[in-house]
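Sequence, please.
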């Protein structure tokens, strides 16, 4: 690292970048995308591989060493393997991962490994075929599950993400954690966040404490160091994997947030819950100097809010909050 490290206005060191590669997706998860889909941007709007590479090089000199590729569905991006390969060639990128819905992952596993990908996050919202279909509006359960197993076989560290929604049964929670007991993978339960898509559904929110209670009643957990991570993580007695809880609404983790995002069309988003962003598309497209791009990144960090709407007043998930937060404004899709 050559430059001053990237620190926001509240003293948080920013070292983690999430890059959305596309806003296209082959799933229609009910908490993320309307059943009819979004109006997606034309591919000509996307940052190119070279523009992404340049951004990551500059951000790397400011201390960003963790990079996660996401979307939409990042594996729908035709040049995904080249992107992984070029980003992995950047000296400062010490940890490169992808978040995927897993449906098209299997044939990519070997090539991704060869290209240098370090880790995978696979989203699996239910281990029940029928409920999986209800949530994702697809029938890809078996493809996702077999990708998870194949990813483990090939030796990828795997995190399995589940957005917890009302209707999740204790039986299913136990199945998830049992999977992490049997295999060396990390299961992570995520609270539903009020992003756009199908809209904010406070009635669908299942507070993390309810899942944590079921897990604690059925497994013996050992807390692990949090290491500036948004997930509260635990080892499972007698098991190989870990279990994590990510409580975006009911137990805000904004104090530990170390990330910024880059949208597929070149907006730096300092916080998922804020509508402020800084566009670097024009700078990258017209070949602006490194100093100008660095300045844009520093400005984006400087406007990173202290916390989201739920930071000072967490959504408790109790009846009175449904009304209070009924009109919570939608923010944006995670991808765009
Ligand atoms: N398509 C890929 C996938 O689903 O893994 C990558 C993009 S997806 C937007 C990234 C992650 O965000 C997924 O784990 C997804 O479950 C999660 N996500 C999307 N909308 C969410 C919401 N409203 N609340 C909580 N998590 C959400
Ligand atoms: Fe697609 Fe991922 Fe959103 Fe589901 S969560 S609709 S897989 S982008």
């Amino acid at each position: 690292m050559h430059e001053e490290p990237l620190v926001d206005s509240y003293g948080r060191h920013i070292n983690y970048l999430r890059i959305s590669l596309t806003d296209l997706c082959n799933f229609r998860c009910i908490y993320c995308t309307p059943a009819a889909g979004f109006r997606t941007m034309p591919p000509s709007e996307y940052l190119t591989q070279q523009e992404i590479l340049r951004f990551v090089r500059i951000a790397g000199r400011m201390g960003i060493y963790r990079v996660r590729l996401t979307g939409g569905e990042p594996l729908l991006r035709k040049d995904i393997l080249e992107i992984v390969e070029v980003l992995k060639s950047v000296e400062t990128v010490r940890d490169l991962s992808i978040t995927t819905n897993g449906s098209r992952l299997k044939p990519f596993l070997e090539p991704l490994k060869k290209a240098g990908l370090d880790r995978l996050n696979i989203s699996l919202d239910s281990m029940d075929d029928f409920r999986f279909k209800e949530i994702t509006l697809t029938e890809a359960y078996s493809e996702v599950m077999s990708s998870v197993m194949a990813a483990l076989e090939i030796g990828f560290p795997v995190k399995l993400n589940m957005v917890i929604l009302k209707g999740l049964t204790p039986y299913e929670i136990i199945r998830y954690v049992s999977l992490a007991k049997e295999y060396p993978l990390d299961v992570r339960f995520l609270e539903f966040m009020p992003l756009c898509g199908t809209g904010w559904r406070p009635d669908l929110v299942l507070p993390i404490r309810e899942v944590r209670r079921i897990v604690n009643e059925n497994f013996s957990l050992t807390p692990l160091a949090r290491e500036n991570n948004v997930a509260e993580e635990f080892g499972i007695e007698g098991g190989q994997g870990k279990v994590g809880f990510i409580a975006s609404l009911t137990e805000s983790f904004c104090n530990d947030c170390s990330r910024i995002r880059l949208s597929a069309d070149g907006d730096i988003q300092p916080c998922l819950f804020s509508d402020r962003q800084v566009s670097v598309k024009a700078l990258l497209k017209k070949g602006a100097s490194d100093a100008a791009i660095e300045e844009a990144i520093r400005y984006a960090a400087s406007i990173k809010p202290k916390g989201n709407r739920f930071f000072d007043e967490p959504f408790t998930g109790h009846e009175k909050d449904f009304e209070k937060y009924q009109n919570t404004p939608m923010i944006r899709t995670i991808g765009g």
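Residues 49-61 form the longest helix (13 residues).
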